[in-house]
Specification:
Elements: H1 11-29, H2 34-53, H3 69-82, H4 87-107, H5 109-119, H6 137-145, H7 152-167, H8 171-175, E1 182-183, E2 190-194, E3 200-204, H9 207-220, E4 232-235, E5 238-241, H10 244-260, H11 272-284, H12 289-296, H13 301-308, H14 313-324, H15 337-343
């Protein structure tokens, strides 16, 4: 029988804290997005399933002591070698376990802090950074032109692709947009996006995009309310938002159309490539990373630079040509501390 005075061995304490963490701490205190909450909940449930199926621990008996270093190490090995999960999936689940234990340790440091510190010695897997995937300029142009503008669905899809590219929004942000988020009559037309962590950001809209939106609204939102999804489908006379899978399928279908029309396209196109393409295009055209960070809604500059600040063949060639030109060095900020730290660091 478990010692009820020791929180690490009390299953009731575990289940109460775990539920508080995913149902209250993450969404209400940390203001985590619904997607983040779902990812953490799924990760913790996977570990619980593992303890039950592989360690033969009844769900009703699971407690914090079962979150020990050996079990977590075995779980990582099982995910990697038995289930063949991707490295990022494995790391997400280990991160969720660490986060729960950190929360529990702060709530009950006497019994759980040692357990948390021991669990933190189980590190995530080192993920090799793959080359960033994005559409080349001619490919993006072909993709935007692929929908059939003579059909209702085609006009909706083309507007969706145009706005997706122009704003570099996340696909979840695009699908959750409502008419009320558009501000087309402002001095500088813009779109308000509710992003990760329930944080708002305003994205300016290009004039051509505004013209497309005005035409789209006249055709699709004459009789809708301000809280209606900007992009929707009708089923049995009712409006409902589009799904992520619908957009993924749409992009693959239009890429196939492009290939049939003679334009080469990436082998495995997906939604996020459009967001990456817009960011890459802006980067290649000289937009500061700080501005790209704001556009993308990245909380940390390291996230932006990690994904987008790498040299393409084109940008590398331009940089080398500029460096080889004779100059007097005028205007170079060699004494700028921030630049020196970036150049002379390991």
């Amino acid at each position: 029988m478990k010692n009820k005075k020791d929180a690490s061995k009390n299953s009731a304490v575990f289940w109460q804290m775990a539920k508080d963490y995913v149902d209250h701490r993450l969404p209400e205190i940390r203001k985590s997005s619904p997607n983040t909450v779902k990812a953490y909940r799924d990760s913790l449930n996977k570990y619980v399933d593992y303890l039950e199926s592989e360690k033969k621990i009844r769900r009703t008996d699971i407690c914090f002591s079962d979150f020990n270093k050996q079990n977590i190490t075995d779980f990582l090995d099982w995910m990697l070698n038995a289930k063949k999960y991707a490295y990022k999936t494995c790391n997400l689940r280990i991160t969720a376990i660490h986060a729960l234990l950190e929360y529990a340790a702060n709530e009950n440091s006497t019994d759980l802090m040692a357990l948390y510190l021991e669990a933190c010695t189980v590190k995530g897997l080192k993920v090799t950074a793959n080359p960033i995937e994005y559409f080349e300029g001619y490919q993006m142009k072909a993709l935007l032109a692929a929908p059939d503008g003579k059909t209702t669905t085609g006009r909706r899809n083309q507007m969706m692709l145009i706005l997706y590219y122009d704003t570099a929004a996340r696909i979840s942000e695009l699908l959750e947009m409502t008419v009320s988020q558009l501000h087309l009559d402002a001095d500088i037309a813009y779109l308000t996006i509710l992003g990760k962590g329930r944080k708002y950001r305003n994205i300016p809209l290009m004039d051509k995009t505004v013209r497309h939106l005005r035409s789209y609204l006249r055709g699709f939102h004459r009789d809708t309310t301000a809280d209606c999804p900007l992009f929707y489908a009708r089923s049995h006379g009712r409006i409902h938002p589009l799904s992520h899978d619908t957009v993924e399928t749409m992009i693959r279908r239009y890429c196939k159309v492009c290939v049939e029309n003679g334009t080469s396209m990436p082998g495995q196109p997906h939604c996020h490539m459009i967001r990456k393409t817009r960011a890459m295009d802006l980067y290649k055209n000289g937009m500061p990373l700080a501005h790209i960070q704001q556009l993308l809604g990245h909380e940390s500059m390291s996230t932006t630079s990690g994904f987008y600040a790498f040299a393409t063949i084109e940008t590398l060639s331009k940089s080398m040509s500029t460096a080889n030109q004779e100059d007097t060095g005028a205007g170079k900020k060699r004494d700028d501390r921030g630049i020196l730290e970036k150049i002379y660091s390991l």
